[in-house]
Amino acid sequence: MTDKLIIFDTTLRDGEQSPGASMTREEKIRIARQLERLRVDVIEAGFPAASNGDFEAVRAIADGIKESTVAGLCRANDRDISRGVEALKGAKAPRIHTFIATSPLHMEKKLRMTPDQVLEQARLAVRFARKHCDDVEFSPEDGSRSEIDFLCRVLEAAISEGARTINIADTVGYAIPQQFGEFVRTLRERIPNSDKAVWSVHCHNDLGMAVANSLAGVMIGGARQIECTVNGLGERAGNTSLEEVVMAVQTRRDFFGLETRIDTTQIVPASRLVSQITGFVVQPNKAIVGANAFAHASGIHQDGVLKARQTYEIMQAEDVGWTTNKIVLGKLSGRNAFKQRLKEIGIELESEEAVNVAFQRFKDLADKKADIFDEDLHALVSDEAVTAEQEYWRLVHMSQASGMGEQPHSTVVLGEGGAERKAESQGDGPVDATFKAIESLAKSGSDLLLYSVNAVTQGTESQGEVTVRLAKGGRIVNGVGADTDIVVASAKAYVNALNKLRSNVERVNPQHQTTP
Questions:
Q1: Domain count, the chain
Q2: Same structural domain, 9 and 141
Q3: pLDDT tens, residue by residue, 331-363
Q4: Domain boundary residue, one of 246, 278, 310
């Protein structure tokens, strides 16, 4: 007899709190659609009260997602909850997720509230949310460092007011697996109405134990929901990794006795999409989704795998979505075949105009390289992340020259409105010269926090995908560009980031928020 384990994905909310991981509305929608294909049970789409941009993103996801519950995070006050209810109005299955801190440290130093005040605010918040939404989840922020007697009072009250899910948050990654599992079990045993709610865990990875703590909360504590993110994305050291939890439960079904509804073949596509959009590269030795996760360099290992895969592989690469299939399109392929392939790999473009633009970019790419992979298509679409109405700067033309013993030099032409402007600059390298030329025109005054280059596929003709992270006035944005010429890709990424800095819909750096 197996139990159902609910997978609650918070990549779009808690994952976005990684510095530089802020996403636009369009980027959030693309990830939400992939999460729906992954068949996660709950998608936490964002923090509706945080900004108008995040409100619109949550609303768009709520309107478009039909196969998963869509949740919005709200602080324990009427304003936040009302904003969340409004954003989720179009959802087929909406959830309000409300929270308040319950640890002595947070109550005294951050909230400056007494325990009785916190208890009353939690009670009223859940009551108010329950009036407007049948599905309400309550989280005690910094729950793992809260006093258990007080926490029992708060959680009993939240369940009495109608909370259907109780989520125990290890907000700062302080917990130890055995201790955390017993903590959750004790809460469930001591709270009289604990059987009226599904119990959940939300663990951070500061000590590298988020997955272990979450699974202990399930096996020892009796929780049946795990809150997690794709690639373990999240602030500081990150969150519980969705792919690790899901594959642990599936691979060791004999031990856990749990089932999820996850389509595991969508794990790697989800990982790649999140990595491309946020600019957070997956380390090669990352479990499940790292490039080396199924690679064998040792001669002994190679010999064993050739004789029988199970000698050194406890799961199959194909089961989590690893594939070497090339798309069968070329420069002679038609537009309908191109659209069909996009659909097959989970890329949905908003309009026919967007399809036309993407198709032309595909044709241009097909002229540059003989073999085109699915990863190339994802990069191609990511490169078009800024829509026409957001595109203030356009890369019209560029050229650069460099050589041993020569000063690198770059010439750039940018479109600004209906005009074109030209600039030249020297630098320490071709990329540095190009960035200086662009900045001499844009005069953004931003700080370059990250410059990262990754090959989209293998081989010397692979597209290079560049991520540029810029910061200005408390805002942090990522720009992404892809091209077979790495300097051109760098210029595209820098211009992409500049447009996001100017965009009114790009949300404020979510690190300024307070969340579980």
A1: 3
A2: yes
A3: 556 777 777 777 777 677 777 887 888 888 788
A4: 278
